[in-house]
Amino acid sequence: MAAVDILLTAYNAASTLRETLDSVRAQTFADFRIVIVDDGSTDATAQILAEYAASDSRFFIVTQPNGGLVAALNHGLSHCTAEFIARLDSDDVALPQRLERQLAYLEAHPACVAVGSQVTHIDENGAPLTGLPDAGEIADADASHAPAREPYVVHSTLMARRAAVEAIGGYRYAPNCEDSDLFWRLSERGALACIAEALLKYRVHSASISSTIVNGRIMAIGSQLSALSALRRTAGRADIDFAPKLTAELRQAGTLEKMWELAAPMLNADEAEHLRIAAAAKLMELARYRPYELDAGDCAFIRAALTFARRLAPQNQREVNWYLTVTAARLIRKGLLAEAFTLTPPASYPVAAARVLLAR
Fold first, then answer.
1. Are residues 241 and 333 in the same domain?
2. For residue range 243-274, what is the model confidence (pLDDT) as tens digits?
3. Residue ranges making up the domain that contains 222
4. Contact 153, 194 (CB under 8 A)
């Protein structure tokens, strides 16, 4: 049995898969097995995987009809037997010492259940990207904040103790945020950590799940539901049930308002009100660095949700107002004046105008 199982899922990944698999074979730590789930690919993914498996017995290939990421991840987990599981996406590149450094960290810190690392962002062609945010400090995680401060590491850098992942039941169908939902639950089993060194090249491209405004809305709702779910567990209350169909239902709903209306019946009144302001703040956060912009419906939802910011701690209220005026200034600079005025209460006009003039 290998010391580390690398869990990788692939769906129509032929354009990047060879570079990813070559980065695995180049690891300085060689006692690994890579469990690869082909999630019903229709391109050359299957042929590439067969080629690598034929030349290296550490490559273990599993196939399934296309069922989506969560189903593929859990299918792959069922085949993992090593003490440690490392995640890797089929378009990312692990740097040579990734496994060695992370395994050494977990062995030296027995109270730590999972560790990630910093990353270098690259574009579709492998060129470096700058200006993208790093994950927040894990120690600052706060599920009651708006938006929630997650105990987040970049998913493709994760190495975790298999016993901890199995104890929490693997991945759940948290909409567009199965990773952060996993991290909340892992953090209840022990410490999470992030190595300050970049051990992965993380690819950002137009095919990303976060590349459209609809996916951004789903992530805004799903991530805050995951945080509310964590608050429930902390309070000893029944957890939120993430049905497999929920993501598709949110996608069909389309607008942030309708997505909130779909999610609200899963919650009590206080939770539903918190979801409004937390999802509004999260979408503003996402739109700062994602390749989409808020529309008039998003802006109207956020403006209405500001009423519920009064429930938040004073520092959190100031953070929401910062997101609001930064977003308004960006919309104005892009010429989206109707959207900016739909978003912004009159009391915030002076600050938004100053941000436009100062380009901040």
1. yes
2. 999 999 999 999 999 999 999 999 999 999 99
3. 213-358
4. yes
